[in-house]
Specification:
Keywords: Kinase, Transferase. It comes from Thermomonospora echinospora. Residues 1-132 form the DAGKc domain. This protein is globular. The strands form three sheets. Strands 5, 6, 7, 8, 9, 10, 13, 14, 15 and 16 form a ten-stranded antiparallel beta sheet that branches. Strands 2-1-3-4 form a four-stranded parallel beta sheet. By secondary structure, it is of the alpha+beta class. 46% of the residues are buried. It contains eight helices and 16 strands.
Length: 305
């Protein structure tokens, strides 16, 4: 089953039709287009129930996230369909973290070669309460930015790096609460860490890309380990600029500093907030939460690669 999001940022019907023709020579292919948010989850769940061999997700990170949650609706199992990722969104973090090209034509070549050779790779995922995620979750400012970007896109704005940067600057200086930290980080067997303004929970690295450049607060995160966490305890201009500079350095080291919180290779992390906080998974805004528990799920899904 090829699940295609016709509204993904850089998609076009012509590209979709080219990919369908490319795969139809090797596969008995069913095309299923998404019509609304959450539809990819419904389609992937049906593919799992009907025992398809492979689900191909043509879209951005949000489409891939939905497809994975549909495939794993009953939990991980070796008999579930494998997943192939055909990136056609604006950022495509998961595809790039897997080593795929960030565009659909190059990814199609690699996926076709892997299908013909029967290659796949087991990948660990994160679980936020009852929803899986592939590369990151966020509570606080980054989720506020995603919420505002989604609102602007619904109003007709074009998604690009400049939109995210402008929105982030607007939220930082005129939107988010920079005085009262609301988050507490909790891990089994460790003392709680209070006074946190925002936090990213990562299943792999990088956290995201800006104009093709990786933004990497926790470069040790990877699919074969537990979860990493980056948090910050000050939203002053100087600490934030220092943290952002550290994320952009290509030195492979975690961002550190007196206001930075780092957790590496954790099996479980809980974020508690003393007020409702914006929450995102894999770049999709999911509302406000006062508590989320994150768990690492090793070898959760087979990826064709």
């Amino acid at each position: 089953m090829l699940i295609a999001n016709p509204k993904a940022t850089s998609t076009s019907r012509r590209v979709r039709d080219l990919l369908v023709r490319a795969f139809s020579g090797d596969l008995d292919l069913e095309l299923a287009e998404t019509a609304h948010r959450g539809h990819a989850t419904e389609l992937a769940r049906r593919a799992a129930e009907d025992k398809y061999d492979v689900v191909l997700a043509l879209g951005g990170d949000g489409t891939v996230n939905e497809a994975i949650n549909g495939l794993l609706a009953g939990g991980p199992a070796p008999t579930l369909p494998a997943l192939a990722v055909l990136p056609i969104g604006s950022t495509n973090v998961f595809a790039r973290a897997l080593g795929l090209p960030g565009e659909p034509i190059g990814a199609t070549r690699l996926v076709l070669d892997a299908l013909r050779a029967g290659r796949h790779r087991w990948v660990g995922l994160g679980l936020a309460d009852d929803r899986y995620f592939t590369f990151c979750a966020g509570v606080g400012l980054d989720a506020e930015v995603i919420r505002e970007v989604e609102e602007r896109r619904d109003a007709g704005a074009r998604s690009n790096p400049l939109l995210y940067v402008r929105t982030a600057l607007h939220r930082f200086f005129a939107g988010t609460d920079r005085r009262s930290p609301a988050l507490t980080v909790e891990r089994p067997g460790h003392p709680p860490i209070e006074g946190v303004f925002l936090s990213f929970v990562l299943n792999t690295a990088p956290w995201t890309y800006i104009a093709g450049h990786p933004v990497n607060p926790s470069p040790r995160a990877h699919f074969g380990a537990g979860l990493d966490l980056f948090g910050i305890r000050s939203l002053g201009v100087a600490p934030v600029l220092a943290a952002v500079a550290g994320m952009l350095l290509p030195n492979g080291r975690p961002v550190t500093g007196p206001h930075v919180v780092n957790v590496h290779d954790a099996s479980e992390i809980t974020l508690r907030a003393d007020r409702p906080m914006a929450f995102q998974l894999d770049g999709d805004y999911l509302g406000e939460r006062r508590q989320v528990t994150f768990r690492s799920v090793p070898r959760a899904i087979r990826i064709v690669i």
